[in-house]
Amino acid sequence: MLSLNNLRIICTSHGLRHSNRLLMNKACLSKVSSYVTLNNCITLNSNKGTKQRNSLRLLKERELKYTTIVSSQKLFCTTHVKQNCWNCSQPIEETPAFFCLSCNVLQPPDESASFFQIMDCDQTFAISTEKLQKRYLHLQRSLHPDNFSQKKEKEQEFSEHQSALVNKAYRTLLKPLSRGLYMLELQSMHLEEGTDPGADPQLLLELMEMNEALQEARSPEDVHPIGQSTKERLKELTEQIDASMRKGELQTAKELLSQMKYFANIEDKVKEKLSELM
Q1: Which of 252, 141, 143, 268 is nearest to 214 (CA)?
Q2: What local confidence, expressed as pLDDT, does residue 182 receive?
Q3: CB under 8 Å to 171, separation ≥6 — which residues?
Q4: Which of 4, 82, 130, 185 is 20 to 30 A from 122 via CA?
Q5: pLDDT, the chain, mean
Q6: For residues 107 and 84, what is the distance between their CA atoms, to the nearest angstrom?
Q7: Which CATH number does 83-174 carry?
Q8: Taking the domain 201-277, which CATH number applies?
């Protein structure tokens, strides 16, 4: 359980440097942010005894609602509260739950569930895309809005939201780049937009040469070697990122994902160029 002292540590520069390791997701960050704001209020009103006592009491009441579970790499914030079925009021035990086991009525999306939980995948970089696709097809057959056209308006609305969420989860986890970026996001880590100022100059030169070769290509035979080289680099990066993720070396994984972003862009340009030349 988060204590007042721990929250003060998070507010310090030392705490900020390690906040990515302490906070798993945006939900945790939002809760801690509210605590930090409250703690600042307590400090500013330290000379006002009544307000301070009220604020401390409120803080302790909120702390009772949240717990942290330590994993091998990070702290998870468990803010999930057991829900009851909106139709029959029976408890919903599964997370995420798509249907009530008692009345078989469709439930609203579980906002606390990760894409890995929705797609029933282990939270690892190397996942089975075959299993992912099977799960996707199964969920879409069950949740598609066409299946609920004769159901209650509430179920129709939930089916649209659930189906859209499954689509987003599937697209995100399907490709290595978007999957890796999502895993970083779960750790409150993000890649900067644009060119990385710390990128290897040799890498940037290689990318520039590949872009120039694509622009000058006049036939599919000119493009294929670039496409093959790009695929090989992406395969190497995928293996390196997987190894880094398994070891918990998130900063290394972030740097490798930055490189993967460049080569994924080249891969898209190769496809566009081949389409133009066909």
Answers
A1: 268
A2: 97
A3: 178
A4: 82
A5: 78
A6: 10
A7: 1.10.287.110
A8: 1.20.1280.20
Over residues 184-221, the pLDDT tens digits come to 999 999 988 776 767 789 999 999 999 999 999 999 99
Neighbours of 58 (CB within 10 A): 13
Give the closest residue to 24 by CA, choosing from 68, 80, 66: 68
**pTM for this predicted structure:** 0.68
Q: Which tokens in the block code for residue 182?
A: 């999502």
Cβ-based neighbours of 254, under 8 Å, separated by 6 or more = 184, 189, 191
The residue with tokens 């939900």 is 27
Read off the pLDDT of each residue in 34-50 and give the average, rounded to a whole number.
Answer: 42
Q: CA–CA separation, 95 vs 78, rounded Å?
A: 12
Q: Which residues contact 54 (CB under 8 A, 6 or more apart)?
A: none
Encoding tokens for residue 72?
A: 């091998």
> What are the structural domain ranges in the chain?
4-78, 83-174, 201-277
The pLDDT assigned to 94 comes to 85
In this predicted model, what pLDDT tens digit does every residue of 6-30 receive, in sequence order? 444 444 433 434 444 333 344 433 4
CA atoms of 92 and 196, how far apart (whole Å): 45
In b/e form, how buried is each residue of 233-251, taking b as 16+ CB within 10 angstroms?
bbeebbebbbebbeeeebe
Q: Which residue has the tokens 């609305």?
A: 157
